[in-house]
Amino acid sequence: MMDATRTDDDASVDWHEHAYDLARGIAAYTASPLVEGLARVVARHPEAEIANAFNHKQVACKMWARDRLFESCGGRFGRIWVLGGWYGVLPAMLFEDGRFDIGMIESIDIDPHVAEIAETLNRTAGERFRARTSDMYTLDYAAERPDMVINSSCEHIVDVRGWLDMLPEGTLVLLQSNDYFSEPTHINCVASLEAFEAMAALREVRFSGALPTKNYTRFMLIGSV
Ligand SMILES: C[S@@+](CC[C@H](N)C(=O)[O-])C[C@H]1O[C@@H](n2cnc3c(N)ncnc32)[C@H](O)[C@@H]1O
Which SUPFAM superfamilies does the protein's record reference (predicted)? Predict the structure, then answer.
């Protein structure tokens, strides 16, 4: 029977407690540092939209990125930058994958609220993970020289080619965009893979493909500028 004295706040607290218990249980069962990190985020950052960042479509897109990255570029990297990195889900997935040997991953996002959450998610990576707050248009790519630049948020930035022009020639990149025009925060979607290829105009393309999902298609390019 419904309890008429229960408030929306009570329901929200219950939801977080259940989600925390469930994530901790799954982490214990799977021995997954990533799921352990999700449990920490649920407990410490109830405001974070972690269920959105880790929904099955987001996970599928990032597994796709991880697998094609390994096939096109191998698994050894000194320093990877993930731009528009949000809560750091992709770094957590790369750290957990035994095929990869990565010195350091930095997740860089313009939103000052996400760095602490990304750090919480990736805490088990220790000094191999760092979250930074910066606009990707203001970074000094030539001075810092990451050996792989990942941007799976191309639909969120105004001028993809203008941004790519900031990278030193030969820099390896993995780019994702999509045709999800109806989402208000997507300011620069592309209608097709061909349109994305034309927009990026990479000097060398190692992988180019599309991943259809229920509501939209995600596009990915791996290569160098
Ligand atoms: C919704 S999220 C990520 C979406 C993407 N599908 C993914 O999971 O990779 C997009 C992120 O890009 C960030 N962002 C947008 N413009 C940026 C910029 N100029 N520099 C750095 N981060 C940016 C936003 O703050 C946001 O966290």
Answer: S-adenosyl-L-methionine-dependent methyltransferases
